C-alpha cells in the first residue's frame, strides 16, 4: 500500500488528468479536422520550454505556461503567415513551421547540455512519468497530513490547474466551439468570433501540451489528444456522448497503461518495467484500432446528398 | 571556422566527405519526391511515416542484439524501419478511406501511437544486455558523427538510386498530381502511381533516418518544395529547384555539424533549409511577402482613390477614412472635404474613364469579360486610340446628378 | 462627425445598403465597387455567372470576409452595431454534415445570441426551435442525426435555423442548389410567407428560369453591379447579355425572358 502511495499514486493521477484534459480538447481538434494543429503545437512545446528555461533559468510553472502560450501563438502566427502570404497549403505550412521550431529547440538544448540542465532530448520525447515520486506518501494517513501533502511533486498541482482551466474554457465557450467547428461562416455572421475562439483553442492545446510535456513527452501527448477523441467519434453521433466516450477511453488507457507498464513485464517473468507514457499511448492507439474495426458509427454519414 | 571550411571543401576526411555527398543526394531526392507529394497536398503523410519507423527500428535492434550482441547493424535497422513505416502508411490510408475519420486524425493517431510503441520497445532495450544502445538516440535527432564508412556508402548509394528512380518516374507523377482524371483516361493507374510515390517517400525517409533523425526528416520532404514554389510556377522546374535546395540544405547542415563534436545533424539541416525558405518567403520578387504586400498596398490605394474621385464627381458623401486621407494628400480635397480645383478636374477625368469603360463593357460584353480588369487601368493602355475615339463618339450626354 | 446625417432616406429604411464595396483576393477584384440598396420588404435575387462574386458580396457585407473598401449599413447604421438584424443561411455544401449533431441542435444554433454562456438551452428555447422546424415541415426529424438527411432536408434545417433568429433580413446563399422539387416549393412558400410578414429576403440564385416566379427584385452582378431593380424592369435580355457575356446562348435568353417553357426546364 505504501509502495503504491509513494510510487504510483501521483503518476497515475497525473496520467489520468492529462489524459482527460487532452482528450477533451482533442474532441474539437478531430471535429474541426485540425488534429495536425495538435501535432504541430506539441512539437513546439520543446522549444517553448527550452527558451523559457534559458530566459528564467528555472522551470517554474508560470514561466512554462507563459512559454507555452507564447510558443503557441508564434506557431499559429507563423503557420497563418506562411499560408496566407506565401499561398502555401496548410499542412505544408505546418510542416515548415513545426520542424524548424523543433530544430531550434533541439539545438538550444544540445548547446546548453554543458550547463547541467536536467532536460535532455530523450526525456523531451519520451517523458518520464515514473519519476513523480511522493517520498512522504508513506501511507493513507499522508493524504491528510499537510506536511506530506506539501511534498507532493509540483507537477501534480500543475496538471490539475491546467485541467481545471481547460474544463472552464470548454464550459464557457462550448457554444462558440461547436458553432465554429460546424459552420464557421454562420458563426461569424452571429458574431461568435470563430477566429478568436480558434486561437483560444490552440492556446489551450499548447498549455495542455506543455503541462503534459514532462510526464509524457512531446510526441506521446499527440496520442492523448487524438486517439481517445477519434475513437469516441466512431462510437456515437452525439457530441455529448462523444465527449463522454473520449473521457472513458482516456481513463481506461491511462490506468490500464500505467499498471501494465509497471507490472506487465513482471507477469511475463522479466524483472523490469517499460515506459508508462509509451504504454498508455500505445493502449490509446489500440482502443482506436478496435473502434475502427467495430465502432458502431465508424462509417461516414454526411455524404453530400445528391439532388 | 576553419573546420567548417575544410568540411565545405571536402578536405575533412573520407568519411565526412562521403556523408556530405550522401546527405546532398538525400536532400535532392527528398526535395524531388516532396514536390510531388506537396502538389498532391499530402505533405504531412511523411510525418506519420517517419514516426512510424521507430517500433521497427527498435524491434530490429532487439533482434540483431539477441543475434549478435550488438544491435547496430544498419541494413537490418533500415529494413525494420521500412517494414513498420509501411504498416503505418497502410494504417493511415485505411483509416482515412474506410472510417469517417479524416486523414488529419489518421496521421496524428498513427504517428503518435506508433512512436509510443517504439518508446516502449526502447525501454525494453534499455533493460537488455545489448551494446550500442546509445546509437539509437542518433535515429531520433540525427547524428552523422562517427558514422562508419560502410554506413555512409550505403546511404549515399541508396540515395542515388532513389534519385534516379524519381527522375525516371517524374512525368507519371506529374500527370497524376495535375489531373488524376486525365491520367486515368491515358491508361495510367492513379492508385498505383500514388502508392509508388508514397513508397518512394517512405524510402527517402528510411534512408535519411540516420542523417536527420526521424522527427525532423519530414522537413526534408516539405521545406525545399515549398521554397521552390516561391520561385517558379512551372512544375518540373519546381521539382528541379527543390532538388537543388534540398542538396544545398544537406550540404550546409552536415558540414556545419562537423564543426563541433556532438552537434546534431538533423536540426542543422532543417535550419539550413529553413533559412533558404525564409529568404525566398520574404524576398522572392514574384511571390515573396514583401513584393506581395507592396503590390497590395498600391492596389488598395488605387481603388480607394478611384472610388473617392468617382464619389466626388457624383457628389456622393465619402465616409471611408483612408479614401479621405488619400484625396487630401493628393490635394484633391480641402480639410473640410470640399473638392479643390485639381480635385474637380481629376474627378471629371475619373468619371469620364469610368463612363468609357462602362460603355465598352456594354457594347463589347464578351471582350470586356475576358480582360477581367477592374477599370483601374487607363483605357488608353488597353484599347487602340481609334477604338477610344469610336467610344467617345457614342458617349451619351452626361446624365443629371449621377445615378 | 455626425455620420447619420449623411445617410439618405432610402438607405435609412433599407435593411442592407452597401456603397462602394470592393473585395479582392490579391490584386484581382472579386467584387468591385458595388452599390446596392436592398428595398425593404422585398424578395431580391442576386444573379450572375459562376465566379461573379455573389457569395463574396454577401459575406463581405456581413463582415465574414474582409472588404477592401466599402460602407455597409443596416437601417442607416453601421453593420457592426446591427448585425443581429440579419439571419444567414450559408451554402449547404460548405459544411461537414458528418458532424455529431441532431436536427434540433442545429436549429437551436440560431438562438446563439439569445443565450449567455451560463445559460442552458431550456424548454422554451427548444419549443422555439421546434416551431421553426414545423414551419419548414421538418418537425418529425427533430432528433435525427444531420448526416442522415437528404440534401433538401438539410436545406430546410438551415432555413429553420435562420427562422429562429427572427431577423428583419434573411440572406440565403444558393438555397435551391441541389434540392428536390418538393423542397424547392416548400422553401419558396416559407420565404413568401416571411415577406408577407414584412421581412426582407436577399438570395443568391443560380436558376435564371425561376427568377421571375420567385422574386420581385433582382441584382445582376458580375464583379460589378450590372443592373438592379424590380424584376420586370431589370431582368431583360440586354442586361442578362451584359452579365453573362457569351456564356448564354440566344436560345437560352429568349427562353428566359418570359417563356413558359422555361418552367419545365427547372424541374430537372
UniProtKB/TrEMBL annotation, chain A:
A Pfam family reported for this protein in Swiss-Prot or TrEMBL: ABC-3
Subcellular location as annotated: Cell membrane
Record GO biological process: response to zinc ion; transmembrane transport
Membrane topology value: Multi-pass membrane protein
Keywords of the record: Cell membrane, Membrane, Transmembrane, Transmembrane helix, Transport
GO CC annotations, alphabetized: ATP-binding cassette (ABC) transporter complex
InterPro entries for this protein: ABC_BtuC-like, ABC_TroCD
Residues passing through the membrane, by range: 6-29, 61-79, 91-112, 132-152, 159-179, 199-227, 239-260, 272-294
Coiled coil spans: none
Lineage: superkingdom: Bacteria
Similarity-based family: Belongs to the ABC-3 integral membrane protein family.
PANTHER family cross-referenced by the UniProt entry: ABC-TRANSPORTER METAL-BINDING PROTEIN, METAL TRANSPORT SYSTEM MEMBRANE PROTEIN CT_070-RELATED
Protein name as catalogued: Zinc ABC transporter permease
Species name: Halomonas heilongjiangensis
UniProtKB/TrEMBL annotation, chain B:
Record-level GO BP terms: response to zinc ion; transmembrane transport
GO cellular component: ATP-binding cassette (ABC) transporter complex
Keywords in alphabetical order: Cell membrane, Membrane, Transmembrane, Transmembrane helix, Transport
Residue stretches spanning the membrane: 12-39, 48-67, 73-92, 104-125, 154-175, 195-223, 235-254, 274-296
Keyword Zinc-finger assigned: no
Membrane topology: Multi-pass membrane protein
Designated name of the protein: Zinc ABC transporter permease
Automatic annotation (TrEMBL), chain C:
SUPFAM superfamilies: P-loop containing nucleoside triphosphate hydrolases (SSF52540)
Organism name: Halomonas heilongjiangensis
Protein name: Manganese ABC transporter ATP-binding protein
Record's keyword terms, sorted: ATP-binding, Nucleotide-binding, Transport
Superkingdom of this protein's organism: Bacteria
One Pfam short name: ABC_tran
InterPro entries: AAA+_ATPase, ABC_transporter-like_ATP-bd, ABC_transporter-like_CS, Metal_Ion_Import_ABC, P-loop_NTPase
Residue span(s) of domain ABC transporter: 16-248
GO molecular function terms attached to this record: ATP binding; ATP hydrolysis activity
Keyword Nucleotide-binding: yes
Signal peptide location: none
Lineage of the species this protein comes from: Bacteria, Pseudomonadati, Pseudomonadota, Gammaproteobacteria, Oceanospirillales
Family as reported in the entry's similarity comment: Belongs to the ABC transporter superfamily.
Keyword S-adenosyl-L-methionine attached: no
